[in-house]
């Protein structure tokens, strides 16, 4: 058995997955998540010192947790907030000094590809007709199959970035329209979603006071479910939103923007249901590391 840890440093959260491979199967040993908001002040083009400090602390904590759990290797990647930051080298050096980890900064294409591979590894889907949606804090990735292979798109619009920008739903739809039109023409008729916004939707719909990945993975949301949750959350004050079952208080200020993106994508793709996947980028990273060994 090979036990591996993977850390995903996102714009809104930092996540850990420790898993082991045995006889071709991946078994989750532990997961963890911290709302670190590395993308605080993302519009400035630079990572802010307090955000870098708290994220570095979270990464260090997760690294030590993975080692304590017996991970032979720990890999770490960073996405939108870091790849867009003018001072990203400062953050990478900060983490390296504290943990020894060499963080790999993923391009939007790599992020989308890893998310897609995670979904197809964890759910029994028809690849030719499935599009994968990954709504992050800083960007949103879409991936689907075309005759020549996997097509990926990264739109620089996520729950944190959209919250700060104040763009209207119509402007969001305009940003996604050409990509969704192409996916539809390629035959994408099924949508699977990953990422904190999407899993939170499943948790809210089921009123999960305690998050249960087994009840979230494979859960199906209708467009009416998504619209209802969006209208409900948008009509609340922040303090009230923080009390909603299934919604982490740290996501309460950006969840409306994230769900807006989900609704826009569902409508633009012309699908009336969204399947939620717990398997995502982190699982792909671990599978890749296992195969490398």
From TrEMBL:
EC numbers on record: 3.6.1.11
UniProt keyword terms in alphabetical order: Hydrolase
Annotated GO MF terms: exopolyphosphatase activity
Start and end residues of each Ppx/GppA phosphatase N-terminal domain: 17-291
Domain of life: Bacteria
InterPro entries tied to this protein: ATPase_NBD, GppA/Ppx_hydrolase, Ppx_GppA_N
PANTHER family membership: EXOPOLYPHOSPHATASE, RETROGRADE REGULATION PROTEIN 2
Family statement: Belongs to the GppA/Ppx family.
Name of the protein: Exopolyphosphatase
Organism: Pelotomaculum schinkii
Lineage of the organism: Bacteria, Bacillati, Bacillota, Clostridia, Eubacteriales
């Amino acid at each position: 058995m090979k036990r591996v840890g993977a850390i995903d440093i996102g714009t809104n959260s930092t996540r850990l997955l420790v898993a082991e491979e045995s006889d071709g199967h991946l078994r989750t040993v532990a997961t963890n998540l911290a709302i670190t908001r590395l993308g605080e002040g993302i519009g400035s083009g630079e990572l802010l010192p307090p955000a870098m400090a708290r994220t570095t602390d979270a990464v260090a904590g997760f690294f030590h947790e993975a080692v304590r759990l017996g991970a032979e290797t720990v890999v770490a990647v960073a996405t939108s907030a870091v790849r867009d930051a003018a001072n990203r080298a400062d953050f990478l050096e900060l983490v390296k000094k504290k943990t020894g980890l060499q963080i790999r900064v993923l391009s939007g294409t790599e992020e989308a590809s890893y998310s897609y591979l995670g979904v197809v590894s964890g759910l029994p889907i028809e690849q030719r007709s499935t599009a994968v949606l990954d709504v992050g804090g800083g960007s949103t990735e879409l991936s689907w199959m075309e005759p020549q292979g996997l097509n990926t798109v990264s739109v620089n619009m996520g729950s944190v970035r959209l919250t700060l920008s104040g763009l209207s739903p119509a402007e969001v739809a305009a940003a996604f329209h050409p990509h969704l039109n192409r996916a539809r023409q390629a035959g994408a008729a099924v949508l699977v979603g990953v990422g904190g916004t999407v899993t939170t939707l499943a948790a809210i719909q089921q009123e999960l006071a305690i998050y249960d990945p087994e009840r979230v993975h494979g859960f199906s949301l209708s467009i009416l479910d998504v619209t209802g949750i969006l209208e409900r959350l948008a009509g609340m004050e922040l303090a009230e939103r923080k009390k909603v079952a299934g919604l982490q208080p740290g996501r309460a200020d950006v969840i409306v923007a994230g769900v807006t993106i989900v609704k826009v994508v569902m409508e633009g793709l012309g699908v009336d249901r969204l399947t939620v996947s717990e398997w995502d980028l982190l699982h792909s990273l671990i599978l890749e590391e296992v195969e490398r060994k």
